[in-house]
Amino acid sequence: MEQKRIVILGAGESGVGAAMLAKKQGFEVFVSDMAEIAENYKSQLQSMQVAFEEGRHSEADILNADEVIKSPGIPPTAPLIQALKTRGIPVISEIEFAKRYTKARTVCITGSNGKSTTTMLTYHILKNGGLHVGLAGNIGKSFAAQVATADFDWYVLEISSFMLDDMYQFRADISLLLNITPDHLDRYDYKMENYVRSKMRILQNQTEDDVFIYCADDEEITRALAGMTIRPKTYAFSIRHQVPQGAYLENNELFININQQEPFTMSISELALQGKHNIHNSMASGIVAKVIELRNESIRESMGNFKNIPHRLEHVARISGIDFVNDSKATNVNSTWYALESMNSDVVLIMGGVDKGNDYQMLKDLVQSKVKAIVCLGKDNKRIHEAFEDDVEVIVNTFSAFEAVQIAYHLAKKGDTVLLSPACASFDLFKNYEDRGNQFKLAVKEL
């Protein structure tokens, strides 16, 4: 039988991981990247003796694939993807590919905001609870690479809508949907219903033996669920009202009720993650832990000692009584809303970058009540000026993290917070949100 040819588009973490697994499974593998491949990934491909190209996509070497694994960043409208589909060549995600070769059970977490935090918290709880668990997806090491080299019983996977778009046979044992707010609409024809449909794919292929966990406070989710037949066992979480099965809030106590198990309770003041949105994230992770039947003491301990991820409401320093907070991972308006909602002081807000069709309307009330000045950090700040010129007295343009921090420091006074929460992607001035956050931290250290 002829050897199956797998072509991988994109040689980042997921692409190189997919190459590793495909090679292990005995496939002929070819990796193609339009950009330059990072040195560490290039040397990995070379040591595995995987053929690759960079700086181009050679159609002759790609259109003869039996199957293509593409980077989530490549849009389905790309001419090359269209050409593959015309020829009937399957195009899938690395996650879909990796799941074929593992018997491990998966907790799959998606949503517009809070995915990384909830994924990390869930992983932390499961690991501390004694499970042999891996962390992958949009975060950490590639899922495919871990399937090739490790032997975990469980994986906690952070799943983006782009990944879901390229998943067909994939099935989550436990799926978790945190929220749906406008994001990446440029990828969905600027239609919210297309984006919602993409997020609901987290439920696809789930059976009566599986579990689906969702936020009952989210209007988009409840509206979408009303028109669907839901097969898995379902648990909701809410901070507004009691739910019969799932998690809710009462007198600042978090309650989790699952089947006939002893209920879980914890005061929200003891949670490591503070702020209203983080109660949702803690509830979601707590339900997962209860479904897996971890001990209440172990869950409580993990929820109390968790350390959040970098670039997400990360306290950098206090200088002259001014707090500097790095929330560079806030690449959409909703994330910035959550950041402002959790602030208890006057804020000098650093925002801006690549605008993905943002609607700043939802920030107006919080900006009016909490923000004394906006420092724009991006090449084109026109829409930020238009949105907030009536709400704050000072809006300044800057073109580097250093300049933004210097100006914000002079605009703030003792007791204020300088918050980097951009509401935009970072690609105009930075490599990615990590680079933006790191440059911000460096600039703060230089004050």
From TrEMBL:
Q: In which pathway does it act?
A: Cell wall biogenesis; peptidoglycan biosynthesis
Q: Which UniProt keywords apply?
A: ATP-binding, Cell cycle, Cell division, Cell shape, Cell wall biogenesis/degradation, Cytoplasm, Ligase, Nucleotide-binding, Peptidoglycan synthesis
Catalysed reaction(s) here are: UDP-N-acetyl-alpha-D-muramoyl-L-alanine + D-glutamate + ATP = UDP-N-acetyl-alpha-D-muramoyl-L-alanyl-D-glutamate + ADP + phosphate + H(+)
- GO MF assignments: ATP binding; UDP-N-acetylmuramoylalanine-D-glutamate ligase activity
- List the EC numbers from the record: 6.3.2.9
User: Mur ligase C-terminal domain location, by residue?
Assistant: 311-424
Q: What is a single cellular component term in the Gene Ontology annotation?
A: cytoplasm
Q: Which InterPro entries match?
A: Mur-like_cat_sf, Mur_ligase_C, Mur_ligase_C_dom_sf, Mur_ligase_cen, MurD
The Gene Ontology biological process terms listed for this entry are:
cell division; cell wall organization; peptidoglycan biosynthetic process; regulation of cell shape
Kindly list the places in or outside the cell where this protein is found, as annotated in its UniProt entry: Cytoplasm
Q: Where is the Mur ligase central domain?
A: 109-288
Major site of localization recorded for this protein: cytoplasm
Note the superkingdom of the native organism.
Answer: Bacteria
The keyword Cell wall biogenesis/degradation is assigned to this record: yes
Binding of ATP: at which residues? G111, S112, N113, G114, K115, S116, T117
Which family, according to UniProt?
Belongs to the MurCDEF family.
- Role played: Cell wall formation. Catalyzes the addition of glutamate to the nucleotide precursor UDP-N-acetylmuramoyl-L-alanine (UMA).
What is the protein name for this chain?
Answer: UDP-N-acetylmuramoylalanine--D-glutamate ligase
**Gene that encodes the chain:** murD
